[in-house]
Amino acid sequence: MNLLEVIRTTVTDMNIVSAITSTLFIIMLGYFCRKKGIFNDQVGKILSKVVLTVALPALAFNAFMQDIDERTLSEGINILIWGLAIYIILIVLTKPMYMKFKGDQQDTLRILTIFGSTTFFGIPIVGAIYGAEGVLYASIFNIGYRIFLYSYGYIKMSGLKMETRNIKEMFLNPIVLATFAGLFIWMFQSYIPQVTVSTEAGVASQVAFLRIDQTAVWLHKPLTYLAGLASPLAWLAIGATLGSVDFKSAMTNKVSWFYSFNKIIMVPSINIVLLLLLNFVGIMPLSGVLLGTVVIMMATPTATVCAAYAISFDKDAVLASNASLLSTLSAVILIPIWIIIINTIGQIFAF
């Protein structure tokens, strides 16, 4: 199969096309509703809070309600390791990347480049493209993100030592709690007390009693409904946010454009090159889902927490706001292209 045939197959795959169009259309709907006054200036914040405190924790937990096998366990460990390693790599690489900038401006650009909106922006898209397996990998990948965001990111932007409230935010927010709870059940389900359940085919099988998808369907079902809210509500919130800001200032800021290029194009490209290299030398075997999950998570725009750091600690807040807007707009346009590129790479290398 030649390259053109691979690309044609990718762009005509209805699962991929429908996931892309769903993302774009619902973001556009949120933008339209905000511009027409259907949504007020608080709707984006409210929807974001619902997604982060209710929908995404349910989505993360439910993703782990599946059988474990050697392949998924191996890839889960690989993506956990990569999720820690890539932030160390980016901490090093962003120094020469922004060498011509000095002081607060350099610090802000580096932190905004290292940390994207993986939770709010990335996971819903990963879920739409790759389903529960993608969300599982994305949730594991985000463990390293949380550790570095609330430690290195905070210290670099504040100039202070680590605070207790950041440690609490790192480990005690609903998404992290749901991720660790689900991860524990998934990894140790063979060692957790077992109960007998009947499958749809009427065959009895032994499962861990905490596998609520089989032992407590009455509890799993409402979590499934809540998890289903994550993507559409997140996309509506993104559209509503874009509809409430002034583009003119951001569009004329060359530094913000440079940052957006690095964040949405360079960072995912670095991940692809390094992961393919590790795959070829046999250190970290790849699958299409693993590669796609990492690239989508790393092609996300400015993390809200990083923008908040810049504003709170007066580290070039205007630049952070402009960069956040431009990178969000760039990500909305380019992530569909990244999805096509990832799928094409997967078919070429038979992942």
TrEMBL record:
<feature type="transmembrane region" description="Helical">
    <location>
        <begin position="16"/>
        <end position="34"/>
    </location>
</feature>
<feature type="transmembrane region" description="Helical">
    <location>
        <begin position="109"/>
        <end position="130"/>
    </location>
</feature>
<feature type="transmembrane region" description="Helical">
    <location>
        <begin position="136"/>
        <end position="155"/>
    </location>
</feature>
<feature type="transmembrane region" description="Helical">
    <location>
        <begin position="46"/>
        <end position="65"/>
    </location>
</feature>
<feature type="transmembrane region" description="Helical">
    <location>
        <begin position="77"/>
        <end position="97"/>
    </location>
</feature>
<dbReference type="Pfam" id="PF03547">
    <property type="entry name" value="Mem_trans"/>
</dbReference>
<keyword id="KW-0472">Membrane</keyword>
<dbReference type="GO" id="GO:0016020">
    <property type="term" value="C:membrane"/>
</dbReference>
<feature type="transmembrane region" description="Helical">
    <location>
        <begin position="175"/>
        <end position="192"/>
    </location>
</feature>
<keyword id="KW-1003">Cell membrane</keyword>
<feature type="transmembrane region" description="Helical">
    <location>
        <begin position="223"/>
        <end position="243"/>
    </location>
</feature>
<keyword id="KW-0813">Transport</keyword>
<feature type="transmembrane region" description="Helical">
    <location>
        <begin position="264"/>
        <end position="283"/>
    </location>
</feature>
<dbReference type="GO" id="GO:0055085">
    <property type="term" value="P:transmembrane transport"/>
</dbReference>
<keyword id="KW-1133">Transmembrane helix</keyword>
<feature type="transmembrane region" description="Helical">
    <location>
        <begin position="289"/>
        <end position="311"/>
    </location>
</feature>
<dbReference type="InterPro" id="IPR004776">
    <property type="entry name" value="Mem_transp_PIN-like"/>
</dbReference>
<feature type="transmembrane region" description="Helical">
    <location>
        <begin position="323"/>
        <end position="350"/>
    </location>
</feature>
<protein>
    <submittedName>
        <fullName>AEC family transporter</fullName>
    </submittedName>
</protein>
<keyword id="KW-0812">Transmembrane</keyword>
